[in-house]
Design brief:
The structure holds 2 protein chains of 2 kinds. Chain A is of the alpha/beta class. Chain A has 6 helices and 5 strands. A 5-stranded mixed sheet of chain A has the order 3-2-1-4-5, with helices on one face. Chain B is mostly helical. Helices cover 63% and strands 2% of the residues of chain B. Chain B contains 7 helices and 2 strands. In chain B, β1 and β2 form a beta hairpin. In chain B, α3 packs antiparallel against α4. The termini of chain B are far apart. Classes of the chains: A alpha/beta, B mainly alpha. Chains A and B meet through α3, β5 and α6 of A and loops of B.
Chain lengths: 163, 230
């Protein structure tokens, strides 16, 4: 039993000490800074449904839902537009995050250093946050907190069904 | 921070507890020397932990470099690996009387799954694919009717759990048969309802089919062993 405790203690020390992975973000361009007006204009002009995911590199749940968003953006490429809105972050942090989680995903990423845009769009300052917009910019749904596969799939299904 | 998943988990665990108590009062688990409630809880924790790790690795997220992500259970748990880990844990804790332990937990596990699926009501996550049926439910702010697929699953699990508990009491099945029936029923119900769930993939259908096959094989095997012994 003592052996087990020692191993567990060692594991608890070693695992966090492994630290974050080193990723090469040099291939990722700077994210364009946008205003709430810019975002609203894009949403209103979009003929496709749009999923806007609000994220930050310091947000642990954002890392957890990133693989889902990557998978969904690839699966619905051409049918649904995916936008990542990076908030209250640094360009370096955001680019490293994209290099690690969305290197090739068809997701446009925008930069909102003040983090006010989600509030102006009708959301909150919580991160992560996901807006589901129909064509023309009508907000169909807003999900606060980390996404699970069912929620994301249902949200996209509603967009494609015209709900 | 959301705690709705916790609500579903609490309903699932409460259902498991209620079924274990009911079975105990009916004398269904008298031959088991272990506290099935403790065993079940340990199995659940081990299953969720391993299932989460498997989901992270499957999604390309390194659990060693992102250890805190393990706690974000909502982002995904691999059902198949979770079930395997839970079963392995239960069998290991119950070593020496593993069949008695898994038999004793079978109906409780089905009831727990029923509670977990019914817990969708606490997090507005019951909806499945589009339908025109009169009992269709709609998402908030939407006009599109959808199958309440999680409630279908919950209903089927309740029926399976009660059916298995009654069968155990009335027919006194051979040792190991209840576990096989429970596993096969769990797989069959998921396999049956999966096509009605919106998903980014086809879902772990193979795991569910495997559970059915393995459960069925266990039933046949344990019946043969019992027959040979008599």
């Amino acid at each position: 039993m003592n052996h087990l405790r020692h191993w567990l203690a060692a594991l608890l020390i070693v695992v966090p000490a492994c630290g974050g992975p080193s990723v090469d973000a040099s291939a990722i361009p700077e994210l364009p800074s946008v205003s709430a007006g810019d975002v609203a204009t894009v949403l209103e002009g979009s003929e496709q449904p749009v999923v806007v995911n609000v994220w930050a590199s310091w947000c642990v749940p954002c890392r957890s839902e990133a693989p889902l968003l990557e998978r969904a953006s690839e699966q619905f490429d051409g049918e649904v537009r995916f936008v990542g809105l990076n908030v209250r972050d640094s360009q370096d942090g955001a680019r490293s995050f994209i290099a690690e989680f969305f290197p090739d995903a068809p997701i446009e990423h925008w930069f909102d250093s003040a983090g006010d845009i989600p509030v102006e769009l009708g959301g909150s300052r919580a991160v992560p946050l996901t807006f589901f917009y129909g064509p023309g910019g009508e907000m169909i749904d807003l999900h606060t907190g980390v996404l699970d596969e069912r929620t994301l799939a249902l949200g996209i299904d509603e967009l494609l069904a015209g709900g | 921070m959301e705690f709705t998943l916790l609500g579903s988990a609490a309903i699932g665990v409460a259902s498991l507890y209620a079924m274990l108590r009911w079975e105990a009062t009916r004398g269904n688990v008298l031959e088991c020397s272990r506290d099935l409630w403790d065993v079940a809880l340990t199995g659940i924790v081990a299953g969720v932990f391993v299932g989460r790790l498997a989901a992270m690795i499957g999604d390309g997220v390194n659990p060693l470099s992102n250890p805190a992500d393990i706690l974000i259970v909502r982002a995904g748990v691999s059902t198949g690996f979770a079930a395997l880990a839970a079963l392995a844990t239960v069998a290991w804790i119950g070593r020496g009387e593993a069949w008695v332990v898994v038999d004793g937990l079978a109906a409780g596990a089905l009831a727990g799954l029923a509670g977990w699926h019914a817990g969708c009501l606490t997090r507005e996550a019951c909806l499945g694919t589009v339908t025109d049926l009169p009992w269709a439910m709609t998402q908030n702010g939407s006009t599109i009717g959808r199958h309440p697929v999680e409630l279908y699953a919950a209903g089927l699990y309740v029926l399976a759990a009660i059916g298995l508990a009654l069968y155990r009491k009335r027919s006194l099945p051979a040792i190991g048969v209840s576990a096989g029936v429970g596993l096969a029923a769990a797989g069959a119900i998921r396999l049956l309802t999966e096509p009605l769930r919106p998903s980014l993939s086809s879902g772990p259908l193979l795991w569910y089919a495997l559970a059915m096959v393995v459960g069925g094989a266990v039933v046949v095997w344990r019946l043969r062993v019992a027959r040979a012994a008599t």
